[in-house]
Every structure is written in structure tokens, then in C-alpha cells.
Amino acid sequence: MTDRVVSQTTNPPTVRSAPRRLLWLLALLVVLGHWLLLNAIPREVHVGPAMTPRNQKTLVFTTRRIEVPSVQLTQVVQALPVQPKPVLIQKPKNRPSKLAEALPTPTEVIDVVQETPSVITVQPLPAVPLEPSVSPQTAMDNTAERATIDTMKAESPAASDQPPEQAQANLTIPSSVRLTYQMTGLSRGLNYHATGLTTWRQDGSHYEASMVVSAFLIGSRSLSSVGDITVDGLAPKRFADKFRSELAAHFQADKGKITFSANTPDAPWKRGVQDRLSVFFQLASLLAGHPEGFPPGTKIPIYTAGQRDVDTWTFRVANQEDLSLPYGAMKAIKLTRDPRQEFDQRVEVWFSPSLNYWPVRIKITQNSGDYIDQQLSSSGPP
Question: What does the pLDDT read at residue 217?
């Protein structure tokens, strides 16, 4: 019994070691089988991106989810086109002075304001080429075109209503003509020059008169008068003064008033009324119609309308004077309108008997001493 126990302890049975060797053998077979399987697969076949150099560029397809915002419906309102705002164009501060507004007229001189300290002498514009001048003898012989009106005709129904100063007067309307003047002036120490062109037309029943004054770098200013020829002489219907904008006086004899576009109060219409341009040709008609009727010292009152109001201009006749004008030497009768109020102008005008009593010189002087002097330089057909 003792021998049997000892035998079991020192020599364990072989049955227990056999399963362990079998496990190792199976493990070896599994590893060998995997190795053979891996070597049997081609190396060019890959699951996923290849790592070989010839397949380094790989296309990657990527997707993402885009959230679309919800769309809200709104009402579409069509807007009216936007009206552009008016643009205010401001004139440069160094614009020409008020010399432009002071372009001289036969009846009015406006102040010339020099806004810069430097003194500028304005040169005259080139004179408009005229046809050959009308000589004094030709002018006197050309009486066929003149309309001679006798205001004392008994057949005139309105002769008894004429003002006293016109009751004894005959009128000889000057023939059509164009007159060019050279103008010089002084305003606030500034000497300036200008050119004036007067055009006078009449057909015995109607007349048209205009005067344009031009100055270099300044522009031009114009006066115009249109109307009828009646037993009282000239009867204006419209007088206009234009520079930048136009101001006009309308003579409404049928309504007995004179209206103004400047919105100034109406003035009463009177027989024999003139405007500030026609008044000079009315005076020429009076002198030519009855030269002996106006000796020195005679006063001739004329109801005269401007662009805003009406005033009575009274001219005093003086002696004849010898003039030396750009046109030539001649004798002329001088008439003077003296100022009645503080700011009135002194108006001096010379009429030449040898030139149909045309106004050959006009000088207007203000109370400040500023003046404009226009002298006849040439004449011709209108």
C-alpha cells in the first residue's frame, strides 16, 4: 500500500499532459492558417484608401447638411419714383460787379459797384459794322419817309382835349434810322466804356424803337418801345427794360391806366404820355415840327413812364452848342432835365438840326457825381 502511494506522487499520469500539448498544436495551426490566408490575398486590393505611392491622390466625397431657412411671404409695395430735389446753383462770389446791371440806358444810370480792390478798365466791344453813314444833307433831304402831324387840325375830334403844352405844336416824326454811340462813364472811381446801338423804325402809323448797350465782359442791356403814331405824336403801348430778366410797362389807353410787370401800383394814363426811350424821339418830333416854337428858356413837361412808375420830366431849352463828336463837328440844341428830388438824375440831351433832330449826345449825371456820356459815332439805315 505504501508502494502504491509513493508511485502516484512521483510519476503523475500522462493523460493530464496530453491535452496541453494538443492546445499548443491547435494554436500553431491557427497561426499558420492565418498567415497562409493573408499571403494568398493580392497586395493591390485594399479596403479603404491605398497607401502605395501611385495612389497618393485620393478623391474624397464629403457631404454636409444645409439648413434651409424658412421663407416668409411679405407684401411687395411699389414705391413711387423719387423726385429729385431742386439744385440751387450759387453764383461765384467773385462774379462781375453790378456794373452789368448798370449798363447805361438813355434814361437811367445805375450804380456801378466794383467788388474787388483792383481797378478794371472795361474796353468797348468792337462796333457793329454799319452801312455807309447818312450825311447831314442826305438826312435833311430824306423827308419823304417822315410823317408830319398837325395837332391843330379842326377835323381832329380830340383836338380840344389836348394839354396846353401840346396845343400849339406841330410834330415831324424822324425817319427810320440806326444810330451808334460811343459811351464813357464814371462810377465810384471806376472808368468804363460801352457801345450803344439805337434802332428807330416808323411807317407813319406805327413805330418801333430799341436800344442795346454792350460792355466787354459784362454783357448787354436793352430797352424797347412800340406803339402808334397819333395826333399827339408817339403813343407807346409797351415799354420794356431787359437785363437778366425783363420789366415792362403796358399802356392801356382804353382803360385809362398804365400797368407794370414789377407788380408796382398802376398809374393813370394821360394823353401824350411817353416812356424812357420814346421820350427822346418825341422831343425830336416837337423840335423838328416847329423849331421856332422852342426858344431858349422854354420848358417842355412830358409825362414819362419807366419800368416801375411814372413821373413828369420837364426839359428846359438852352442855346445851340458846337459839339465835337466821334461822328464829326456839328451844332446841336441842348435840353436839360434838372433833378426834382434828392436821388433824381440830371439829364442833358443834344438834338442836331442837321441830322433830323436826332439825339446826337445824351449825358446822365447822378447826385453822387457818377455819369454816363454817350456820343454819336455813326448812323445808317435800320
Answer: 67
CATH of the structural domain 136-380, one choice from 1.10.3470, 2.40.360, 2.60.200, 2.40.160? 2.40.360
Q: What is the CA radius of gyration of the chain?
A: 55
pTM for the whole structure: 0.60
User: Which residues, listed in sequence order, are joined to residue 214 by a DSSP beta bridge?
Assistant: 195, 220
279 by Cβ neighbours in 10 Å (0-12 / 13-18 / 19+) ranks as buried
For residue 184, what pLDDT band results from cuts at 50, 70 and 90? very high
Distance between CA atoms of 248 and 223, rounded to whole angstroms?
10
pLDDT for the residue 106: 44
Q: Exposed, middle or buried: residue 52 (CB in 10 Å: 0-12, 13-18, 19+)?
A: exposed
What's the gap between Cα 339 and its chain centre? 34
